[in-house]
Amino acid sequence: MNNQWKWLLRLGTLLLVMIILYVWMKLSPFWTPMLRIILTVSIPFFISVFITYLLHPVVEYTHNRGLPRPIAILIIYLLFFGGIGFVGYKGIPVIIDQLWELSENFPRLAQTYSDWIKQIHTSTSSWPDGIHERVDQTFSEFEEMLSSLLVKVIAGLKGLLNSFFILIVIPFIVFYLLKDYDQVKKTVWYLTPRKWRKPGMAFLHDVDQSLGSYIRGQLTVCLIIGVLATLSLWLTGMRYPLVLGVIIGVTNVIPYFGPVIGAFPAIIIAATISVKMVLLVVVIIFGLQFIEGNILSPLIVGKSLHIHPVLIILALLIGGEVAGVLGLILAVPVFAVLKVTITHISSHFIKH
């Protein structure tokens, strides 16, 4: 009899949850605008917390070297946001000019790409029907993905301009978070239920050990690769060096697949100039990857993730399937956090 009551209670609870979810979805026209406002207001805080997380170890390192903490915070703060401001002031007009010139030459680039597709289609026509169709399908999917990506980039730039006055508060939030970092930690500690404090601190410590140095190192490597790519392409006389350098630097954050994605636009543009330029671009890309793989990553990133390459590739495939390019960028960090989470949950159940 007791078992029957337990099952009835569980079914009743499940039914109640489903009714609540149904009513909640029906009321979505009322709470969706409020949720959108909350998300818009929360974005600067999330970005500020992330920047604080990146800068705090640098502040602590400088402070431990004997510099007073307020002075260390001010120097790192001014260098970081001053550098971003200077690069934006000098770089954004150049990027806009190069993007404008690129848009004017887009028909020529599209024709080059179309000629490539025709050549590939002709050269694979003698292959078995299934393989030939799969090649055509792959290029069609790539074109759709590229078109969707361009639409998202344009929408993102418009959204960034619309949110300018909200994003301008980020430097102020970061300054106060860096200044009152210890007080923020104490506040979070006292707001956390007592039984979750030690496990939570251990979990965050392991996440930081696994992910923190990887993120900071990877961003540093991407910045260096982007600068080297821009300078190399500019010295060889390649068109749109800053735009292509930014693309190469940003896509470099994606392990294994990033260099291929970043190299593709540069090679297409080089093909509209000359065969010699294509060879130069290929040499530059291979040279950058050699520097990144043999010097920068081992020196700056190291083996902080402790994740097997096969698992990283699996995470990238899943991330790309779920969320496209954004999924590729976030796949490894999310996988690292999941790995730490599963480890802590497993150890918790073993103890109990």
TrEMBL record:
InterPro entries: AI-2E-like (IPR002549). It is a multi-pass membrane protein. Keywords: Membrane, Transmembrane, Transmembrane helix. The keyword Ubl conjugation does not apply. The chain crosses the membrane at residues 7-25, 37-59, 71-92, 159-178, 219-236, 242-261, 268-291, 311-338. It is found in: Membrane. Its main location: membrane. Belongs to the autoinducer-2 exporter (AI-2E) (TC 2.A.86) family. This is PurR-regulated permease PerM. It comes from Sutcliffiella tianshenii.
